[in-house]
Structures are given as structure tokens and as C-alpha cells.
Amino acid sequence: MLASRHIMTMDDVTADEIALILETAESFAEVNQRRIKKLPTLRGRTVVNLFFEPSTRTRTSFEIAAKRLSADGINFSASSSATVKGETLRDTAKTLAAMACDLVVVRHKYAGAPQMLAEVMDCSIVNGGDGVHEHPTQALLDLYTMRQALGKLAGLRVGIVGDICHSRVAGSLVPALRKVGATPVVIAPPTLLPARPDVLGAEVMWDLDEALPALDVCYLLRVQFERADAMPFPSNREYASLYGMNLARMAKLPRHAIVMHPGPMNRGVEISADVADSDRSVILEQVESGVAVRMAVMYLLLGGADSGAAA
Ligand code: NCD
Predict the structure, then answer these.
(1) Is residue 250 included in any domain, yes or no?
(2) Within this chain, do residues 282 and 141 fall inside the same structural domain, yes or no?
(3) pLDDT of 145 higher than 70
(4) Ligand 1 center from residue 138 Cα (angstroms)
């Protein structure tokens, strides 16, 4: 169903596979509207959520997705596991491998943690965010949400604003947009861009006000203070005045353009409360799409309907 057993980076999925994932997610979104939101598709399969970093949306949406497909889900959070006793990621992975699970969703502060798990475990690995590297299912749900709101992906001009250099969301969204024929534009002060922004494969702009009138999507990122060694700008007020989305800036966007944010938001820093709660914001639609897209990813990775062949 998908050529790769894993989704660790956007390199693991082709443009055709993105189309297949989005199409499959659309049928699961329909199931999510029903009163009884459960399918027997992954009955007997075991999905482990292995989260070493905090998460609200990603962990719960993978958990709900697994339950709606009738998989057995196990939640492993670092604070209540042997990790606090000093167990290495490799040993934790070997322990879980011995219990024969079918799919592991991993979030870890180290870039490359999913690849390490894939070496040790004989199951599908989905990256739920690895350090400052990638977060591919976030990019897939973002594409889904854009297509729902704007009716297409090819040709869209998508401004990704803010903390590009620490953002695994941008790390997956930029290549994902390129694969579907959209144009990613990163908009940030130089202190929040990587040293060589040209390697991102996106257009680079410093001035948000100049960028706004040509955008179809304005995608705001949280400033990841926890990943920065020092304050990347003088104050939050300074940041908000130059890069924060507010009503005056939203008025500079074309009428059809939408505002997105992966969450969690810092209201008053990268986005004002009135923009976050406005009818041009699709932030809650992103969360909603997350469940259907993650159902699609699990279904396609685990072989879909063929998976229960023994029955
Ligand atoms: C992001 C993450 O954890 O990578 N959130 C998410 O998964 N929805 C972004 C962030 O923490 O700012």
C-alpha cells in the first residue's frame, strides 16, 4: 500500500502516496462524523505510543486514531517508565520489540530517534516529532486541512512564519509542500533561520508585511524557547510587533487566505487571540484532520484490509 514500512521523514512518501493518504483520510473523516466511530480494520494489531517529550494533540490523536480502527493501543510516557531509571532508548526499544508490537509512534528530543528504533525493532515506525528534525504526520494533516479549505494544493503559496530553525513542523512541511507542487516561503528574522536558509528549498523573506498580500496560507510557528540557547530576539513584544499575526496584518492577506498553527499557541506572541479565534483560522480543523490522517497512515502502513488475513 505504501512502498516504505515506515514514515520517519517526508522522504518516505512520494507525491502519489501523499495523494493516497489524503484520499484515504477523507473516507476516515466521514467515519469520524458517525455516531459510532469505530471500524474493525486493525483488530488484533498493537500500536505503541512512545512519547519521550510532552504532547497534547499528537499523542491523543494517534491514540484516538488507533482506537477508532480497533487496534490495541499502549501509551508509554517517559516520565512513568524505566527511562527515568536510566534505561537507554535502544534498550527500551528492544524490550518493546520482544513484546511483538506492529507499529510504534515515537516522539523524542533527539533527531534520528525513529531511525534508531527501526534498526532495533521489526515493526513500522512513525515519527511523531524528532528533535528539531521532522514531524511528517503534522505536515500530512496540514496538507489535508489546506486542501479542505482551499480546494487544491498545487500552486498554493504558503508562508511559514517564525522559528524555522528549531521547527520540526517546518522541517516536514517545506518538503511536503514541494512534493505537492505548492510554494513554501519561510518568513523569519535571520536569528530564527538556519545558517544556510537556501538549503531548505523554500523562498526566504524577512519582512512579513511585504509577504502577506501574496499568500494563500499564513502558517505561524510557536517560538520554541525550550530549544534555543539564548533569546533569539530582544523581547516577546518586539517579536509580536514584527512577526506576530494580528487583525491589522490579517487584513493584508488576500480575502480567501487562511491562517494555520500547529499548536500549542503562545497567544499574544506569534498570534493574537482574535486571529486565533477568527473564522479565517483553521487551527481546530487541523486538530480534527489529525485523527483522520493518522488513521489513514496506520491503515496504509499496516496493510489495510489485508492485515487480518489470518482470520
Ligand atoms: C509541535 C511539535 O511538538 O512539534 N506541535 C505539534 O505537534 N502539534 C510544535 C510545537 O511544539 O511548537
Answers:
(1) yes
(2) yes
(3) yes
(4) 8
Residues 275 and 187 in one domain: yes
Same domain, 172 and 223: yes
Cα 144 → chain centroid: 11
pTM for the structure as a whole: 0.95
CATH classification at residue 118: 3.40.50.1370
Q: What is the mean pLDDT of residues 184-207?
A: 95
> Mean pLDDT score of the chain, rounded to an integer?
93
Q: Is the CB of 41 under 6 A from ligand 1?
A: no
Q: How many distinct structural domains can be found in the chain?
A: 2
Distance of CA 36 to the CA centre of its chain: 27
pLDDT of 309 strictly over 60:
no
With a cut of 90, say whether residue 80 has pLDDT above it.
no
Does the C-beta of 263 come closer than 6 Å to ligand 1? Answer: yes
Q: Name the one residue in this structure whose C-alpha cell is 533561520.
A: 193
pLDDT for 95 equals 87
Q: Ligand 1 mean position to 27 CA, how many Å?
A: 26
The pLDDT of residue 76 is above 90: no
Q: Domain span at residue 195?
A: 136-286
**Ligand 1 atom nearest 163 alpha carbon:** 12
How much is the pLDDT for 32? 94
